[in-house]
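so im writing up the methods section and need the Molybdenum cofactor biosynthesis protein B record in one place, dumping it here so i stop losing it
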Amino acid sequence: MSNLTDKDKKKSIAIAVLTVSDTRDKDTDKSGGTIIRMAEEAGHIIADYRISKDNPAEISGNVEEWIGNSAVEAIIITGGSGIGYRDVTIETVKPYFTKTIDGFGELFRFLSYTEDVGSKALLSRATAGSIDEKVLFALPGSSKAVKLAMEKLILPELHHIVHELTKHRK
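--- predicted struct ---
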């Protein structure tokens, strides 16, 4: 049972979205578009949306800007989370984590395994963590994977996570 009030549950969360890709732009970015569409349909606000190359400095620059922006409450990154040479998102964002949310990656891989990709799910390095009072989710670049994570994990728990990270202020 949740300790959230109806007011907390209805509050829009301000989300920054980052797509990490060397090939996508805003016209071809299905995964970023999926995050934006699903978040807005759930009543949340997209505070910012950007596309970054698979480049640690570029990814870090965006994350650091959003960490410093008090209006951003959550960061969702799609792409760059695989095991390929150019996949640097996870190594880039993990050092920022105040705490890891290990259950996110575990549940995401379980759901991916059972609902979609089978044993290929072991290649996923999807992760989440808190950065002080913000939450960051790092997802695969696949729009199917993004839809699964948003529908089954992120949107159902986003209010609760933000509430837990900020409740000491109340």
